[in-house]
Design brief:
This protein is mainly beta. The chain has a single domain, classed as Porin (Beta Barrel). Helices cover about 5% and strands about 55% of the residues. It is built from one helix and 15 strands, in the order H-E-E-E-E-E-E-E-E-E-E-E-E-E-E-E.
């Protein structure tokens, strides 16, 4: 019987095909990167927001899981709506996934500080599975060695409720593919739920506890986190995904426009000793929009 070798090949080509290859990688800086999965979570802060991120997993393994992404969003207050664009490139062992998606959200305001946003994302993803990366001890002519790929439409839906400092969000990604129809080339439905609350310790000092839930087929992840921030200048936090990893993260504003975020996922379990963890870096930027006010005397009381 043919056996795949060596150990890292088993981990990167078998385990990803069963799990990660059918799912999106989970972010470490998910506290500031919610918009990557939820089209309803477009920031309404008076700026055009941009994120550039790199996620490198299982450092020390050849062909280890990694991801790069770009996100741009803008809100239009007068229309109670926002637009966004997400671009992802993800490589996991023998699989490559590339995704581009446009997002739209609409916000409904209620009395007393309540508001609800609904979002829809639509685009395409390309997925390739390179079976030539599988290496066998003996030649076997009956085993096909090829590269399969497919381009499919892709849709997301999300909702987010805000009341003062409380946020509750829900998002479904890849909503057209049921788990029973998922293959190596078709990403199954994935659901995210999160709740956070911004505690004001004193002026400009905040503490944000958060709970997250993720599910895709038989894969489930539950996590909790606690983040501290001072104004928009500095933040630091710790997160724990139950049974899988501990995450330490921090962020620092390096200019009036740019801020850099870093997270280190220490991991846990059987494979901890085989790698040096997961590193994730995000550079975020907020570009001030042109003022919508007018200097014409007609608008002066």
């Amino acid at each position: 019987m043919n056996r795949i070798r060596p150990l890292y090949t088993i981990l990167l080509l078998i385990i990803p095909i069963v799990t990660y290859s059918q799912s999106d990688l989970l972010f470490s800086n998910y506290n500031i990167n919610t918009i990557a999965r939820n089209p309803a979570s477009i920031e309404n802060n008076g700026t055009i927001n941009a994120y550039l991120g790199v996620h490198q997993q299982w450092i020390g393994f050849e062909d280890a899981p990694n991801m790069q992404w770009v996100h741009i969003s803008n809100t239009f207050e007068r229309l109670n709506m926002g637009l966004s664009m997400n671009i992802f490139n993800q490589s996991v062992g023998a699989t490559l996934t590339q995704n581009i998606k446009l997002g739209y959200n609409y916000r409904i305001y209620f009395g007393g500080g309540h508001n609800v946003s609904f979002g829809l994302g639509a685009g395409l993803y390309f997925r390739r599975v390179d079976y030539t990366k599988l290496r066998f001890e003996d030649d076997e002519q009956t085993i096909p060695v090829s590269i399969d790929n497919e381009t499919l439409p892709d849709f997301d839906f999300g909702a987010e409720y805000n009341y003062r400092n409380l946020t509750i969000g829900f998002a479904s990604n890849h909503i057209t593919i049921r788990n029973s129809n998922a293959t190596l080339l078709k990403i199954p439905l994935q659901n995210h739920i999160y709740v956070d609350y911004r505690l004001i310790l004193k002026k400009d000092v905040f503490l944000v506890p958060r709970v997250d839930f993720f599910n895709s087929g038989t894969i489930t992840s539950v996590g909790s986190s606690l983040d501290f921030s001072y104004k928009d200048i500095f933040d630091a936090g710790i997160a724990y995904r139950y049974g899988t990893s501990m995450i330490i993260r921090t962020g620092l504003k390096i200019s009036p426009i740019f801020k850099i975020h870093y997270a280190y996922d220490m991991g846990s379990g059987t494979f901890t000793s085989y790698n040096s963890g997961i590193h994730e870096i995000i550079v975020s930027a907020g570009f001030k929009r042109k003022s919508q006010s007018y200097n014409s005397p007609r608008f002066i009381d």
